[in-house]
Amino acid sequence: MSDRRREPQRTEDPVLSVRDLVVEFATSDGVLRAVDGVSFDLYPGETLGVVGESGSGKTVSALSILGLLPRPAGSIAGGEIIFEGRDLTRLSKAEMRKIRGGQIGMVFQDPMTSLNPVLRVGFQIAETIKVHMPNLGADRVRMQGIDLLSSVRVSNPEQRYEEFPHQYSGGMRQRAMIAIATANQPKVLIADEPTTALDVTIQAQVLESLQNARAKTNASMIIITHDLGIIAEMADRVIVMYGGRIVETGDVRSIFASSSHPYTLGLLESLPRLEVDVDRLTPISGQPPSLVNLPSGCPFHPRCQLSAGREVCRTVRPDLIDSASGSMSACHFQEEMPEEPRRMAALRHSPDREAT
């Protein structure tokens, strides 16, 4: 059953629609299906969070949108990515270059490898601007680049504009990437693990810069992360991915207050609790599945306590269906989800949601 007809009804048209996306990689062990039938909409002004363990398909989905899958190993084997009435999977490389960095910007996970180490940061910002606005004069480009660095709170932007990436701290490099991603006022901004390897204080500064940049451009945003705290703070809706598939999706309040999939609850329960002194965290048992050889039926069933080895979980792949909480969940037994742990997860991870 397609996920498409299960998307929530809205009055406005989505700015980006992904439909039944399938992405495969050719490996020495066989064909690896990294993304399997993923569908979602991104609406104007919305921030959509995408969470899941490493290997769940989060980043590959984002790279597919931008046409940045590593070739020839990676390829889109099915589905559509509709942006402004055009299917991005059918565009030429030249057409995608006009969209990438212009109408759709991306903040990559590792700014040290994303920025060219032998080119000045200012040159890299200017290059992004000139690709999409070739008639803009050099002085105007430089002024705009300095303004971008200032807008993401890089200190001494005139000086920093002339420096190389290695002269920036990790947080400054990430803010420079945000400046590059938003240089051309994109309609969609994608941030892939924007706070990886940063300490807590710098994480907060980067997230604030990201929020300010999104607000300034009025862009819709997809934020990819494994940190549910970031999702609680920034996202309007959330997609939970596992084994290349969406296992739960809904608004943030519904997901945190009454998650309807055991994997989502496992992610919430594995986070540290401030109000309880514990010696050990509660991890999800087992390991993520191999995408070359996914389990039959529900991909989460070998790790799922709710499944308890039931045959339907082992043999039938569950569809995303509406849950009582208002989210959509791909679980055969979502009505058996416990109530109290879900409320506790909401209280300890989303304290500010009641005030918003």
Strand fraction: 15-25%
Tell me the structural class: alpha/beta
CATH topology of the largest domain: Rossmann fold
**CATH architectural category of the largest domain:** 3-Layer(aba) Sandwich
Oligomer: single chain
Tell me how many strands there are: 12
- Gap between N and C termini, in Å? 35 Å
User: In CATH, what is the class of the largest domain?
Assistant: Alpha Beta
Element-by-element helix/strand order? EEEHEEHEHHHHHEHEHEEHHHEEH
Number of helices: 13
Total discrete domains: 2
Backbone CA Rg:
21 Å
In round numbers, the mean pLDDT is 88
Describe the protein's architecture and organization.
- The protein is an alpha/beta fold.
- It folds into 2 domains: 4-235, P-loop containing nucleotide triphosphate hydrolases (Rossmann fold, 3-Layer(aba) Sandwich), CATH 3.40.50; 254-275 and 284-355, no CATH class.
- It has 13 helices and 12 strands.
- Helix 4 (121-132) packs across helix 5, helix 4 (121-132) runs parallel beside helix 7 (170-181) and helix 7 (170-181) runs parallel beside helix 8 (200-217).
- The longest helix is centred in the middle third of the chain and has 18 residues, at 200-217.
